[in-house]
Amino acid sequence: NTVIWWTSSNGIVRIMGYDLVTRQERIITDLGRDNTVQGVDIGGDLMVWSAIGTGGLDIFGYDLKQHRQFVISRAVGDQVAPRISGNVVVWQDWRHTGARRYVYNSEIYGARLDPSPAPPPPAIGVPDAVDAKIEIVWPQNGVPGTQAEQVNISTWLFHRGALKSVSCQWWSHIQLWQAMNNDPARRIATGWRSLRYLADNRTIPTWNLDNINVTTTRDPQNRAYFFVTLDDVPSRTNVWAHAADARTYFPSQDTPSGIASVSDAVDAKIEIVFPQGNAPVMQATRVNVSAMLFKPGTLLSVPPDSRFVVHLWRALNQGVGEDVGVGQMRLVSSAALTYPVWDWNDVDVSAARDPANKYFLRLTVDGAQTNSNVWAHGVDARTYFPQVDAPVGECE
Question: In this predicted model, what pLDDT tens digit does every residue of 115-160 receive, in sequence order?
């Protein structure tokens, strides 16, 4: 006795219902702003529909008797056109669609619904963690990097620890961060996904960031460091240095101007990377690192009783960063202020004794948005990446 449909009003998408006996209309569920619905169906007290979920269109259900919404399928790719009879629901599924040109193969999936509560089904095809690699920073109009006003950036996403591309049908937003000189990085752009067709007829999803302003790096005193993060899964990233001279010069450490209250965002700054034995870069095998945390946009230190867990990440050349470990906090008293500093001792940098190698160091803080600076350690810290990575196989 119930009719259902979906409607969009002022950008808000809802599933509506009308009881033919009581002649009452009601909102069954609110799907939020700018959602998309691809089909609704009802059978008895169970209704199903397709709407935006985990990286695409997923299948959802609602029990009219129990007044409970639930997820039926949330695989990568689109799941559309659901139909239900009794407690059996079927739909058209694109999770295994390839990414090559003109490949449009879908499958029919189904599920039998149980009335008892259950956890959501797994997000099939969504990686547990990824390695996000900036593959190219391309100056527009073919000019040298030191003369460029804008660049285009392409990033590939791989399964953690391998060069195997993520699923063809997985969508995720990546955020591009830029750290200028010794300043904490700021998010400057969000990547958009496309498909890149390789020379050997393989295909890989690519996240593009175009028209990135780099005019400041035409000044040889300036340097920009780029890296990316993901919104929805844990990720590691490489660092791309764009500068005439990308080495870090930081002759004077910051002095806190006061103490700030704890917030959910921090500026994390590596203050010194000190080679043991005061050795030059080409001879140092280990360094000691110290860092401080500030209120974003200020030199107000976090409080001395802070319990932040601060991680140091080290990336060699174009490799993704590796977690060196958690810093040990100590308190420093100066000019009537007491503030925390985090230290890492005996950090291995021996590969940088080869002038072809360089390390990039940055920080993350558990549970806080971290705006970290980047410290380049090497004789020549500019990024040289003449050939993009060679993916294993192609996306599936």
Answer: 888 888 988 888 999 999 999 999 999 888 889 999 999 999 999 9
What pLDDT is stored for residue 198 in this prediction? 78
Q: How far apart are the first and last CA of the chain?
A: 43
Name the residue among 16, 169, 183, 175 with its Cα closest to residue 107.
Answer: 169
Whole-Å CA distances, 188 to 74, 170, 179: 30, 23, 10
Residue showing tokens 């569920």:
29
> Considering only CA atoms, which of 278, 277, 257 is closest in space to residue 267?
257
In the chain, the amino acid numbered 119 is P
How would DSSP label each residue in 303-368? PTT----EEEEEEETTSPPEEEEEPEEEEEEETTEEEEEEEEEEEE-GGGGSTT--EEEEEEETTS
**Structure token pair of residue 328:** 């040990």
CA–CA separation, 336 and 349 (whole Å):
36
Q: d(Cα 256, Cα 335) in Å, to the nearest integer?
A: 9
Amino acid letter, residue 56: G
Note whether 321 and 313 are within 8 A (CB).
Answer: yes
Q: How far apart are CA 344 and CA 360, in angstroms?
A: 15
- Calpha distance 342→330 (Å, rounded): 6
What pTM did the predictor assign?
A: 0.87
- Predicted pLDDT of residue 209: 94
pLDDT at position 55, please? 67
Neighbours of 382 (CB within 10 A): 17
Residues of the chain with pLDDT under 50: none
How long, in residues, is the chain? 396
Give pLDDT, residue 23.
96
Strand, coil or helix: 371: strand
Token pair belonging to 123: 């997000």
Tell me which amino acid residue 299 is.
L
Task: Identify whether the C-beta of residue 340 lies closer than 8 Å to the C-beta of residue 301.
Answer: yes
Q: Which amino acid is at 141?
A: N
Which amino acid is it at 328? Q
- Chain center to CA of 280: 35
Gap between the Cα atoms of 131 and 227, Å rounded: 11
